Amino acid sequence: MKKEVIEIEKFSFSINDKKILKNISLTVMKGEYISIVGPNGAGKTTLLKCLDRIYKGGVGSIKISGKPIEKYRQRELAQHVSYVPQADGNIPPFTVREFVMMGRYPYLNPFSSVNFSSNKKDEKTVQDALSMTETLKFSERFLSELSGGERQKVFIAAALVQEAEILLLDEPATFLDPKHEAGIYRLLARANREKGVTIISVTHDINSAVMTSRRILALKDGVSAFCGPAGDFMNNEILLKIYEKPFIFMKHPQTEKTIVAPEAP
């Protein structure tokens, strides 16, 4: 029987007296894949940061695995929730292996070196994550030497080695070319399918949201404007309220799922 891993109830959050999230409620079951969509400024990234307690406070409640989020110590919370932020151009000065080993910090001795762990489980977990993300072949290279797509896979590997049941991602395929974008989404689908990782991913690409996720949460001005099966989202009555424009639809030639067709210039 599946359990609830995230329970958000009537949650609101403000920054500098500006209300960003308004009365959000959402229950996420273990093993779900949910995409969060919506226009710029809708509160998508803010919600992720509240779930990882980067942003603290707010009105209402958030529970992670049945426990109020404010009751967790940070290292304990990191054993339940991992977070891959949106790429911002800042590149940490570490090798791939060093950076991924840092993802084990919830389990490592605070004085451990990132170059070494005497724990065979840590070493195996890192090795498995590097293999799964296809980054093992450049594990001794510095992050600065990698392409954007390769680096994004490393960031996901670092999140996977936390062995958290929940993986939060903010625009995981932003700025990537089609090949690397497809690779990232295949990797996330595999982690969800094979490891049972619960995935919550923020994206502006509603086609990828429909293709990859089982449910979609759409935010508009900090309010939940839609929450339901991904297939039900491709409806102009719904999309017009969220994006203030109609869309043209077509059937995907491989999956038969309804997707948005590109508009003629």
Structure, explained:
This protein has 265 residues and is α/β, with parallel strands linked by helices. The chain has two domains: 1-80 and 164-179 and 195-265, P-loop containing nucleotide triphosphate hydrolases (Rossmann fold), CATH 3.40.50; 89-163, no CATH class. It is built from nine helices and twelve strands. A six-stranded mixed β-sheet has the order 6-7-8-3-9-10, with helices on both faces. It has a four-stranded antiparallel β-sheet with strand order 2-1-4-5, covered by helices on one side. Strands 11-12 form a two-stranded antiparallel ribbon. Strand 9 and strand 10 (223-229) form a beta hairpin.
Question: Can you give me a brief rundown of this structure?
Answer:
The protein has 265 residues and is an alpha/beta fold. The chain has helices spanning 44-51, 74-78, 96-102, 120-132, 148-160, 178-195, 206-212, 230-233, 236-243, and strands at residues 4-15, 18-29, 33-37, 59-64, 67-68, 81-84, 166-170, 198-202, 215-220, 223-229, 249-251, 258-260.
